[in-house]
Specification:
This protein has three helices and three strands, in the order αβααββ. 7% of the residues are buried.
């Protein structure tokens, strides 16, 4: 796994919108990413990361977004949660 990736741009250079379209999703997508340098990440830590980033808060509070997909991965030194 490429630790330099932060979720916004895929390992193949794709965006969240391209990945969603390739998976058959029709519509506009936005993406939020929470990364914690530890084995686990709590719901409070995730919400704090998303709440205190104005761009992520705008995505999460936009009522035009009516569906969500969530992915997470944990390792001994890093936890990642992505919401699209």
């Amino acid at each position: 796994r490429n630790r330099a990736l932060n979720g916004d741009i895929g390992s193949d250079g794709s965006t969240a919108q391209i990945r969603a379209n390739n998976a058959g999703f029709v519509g506009t997508v936005s993406e939020t990413v929470a990364i914690n340098p530890a084995l686990a990440i709590s719901g409070i830590e995730i919400m704090n990361q998303w709440y205190y980033r104005p761009d992520y808060m705008a995505i999460m509070s936009n009522c035009a977004n009516t569906q969500i997909g969530v992915w997470s991965e944990n390792s001994f030194d890093r936890s990642v949660v992505v919401a699209v």
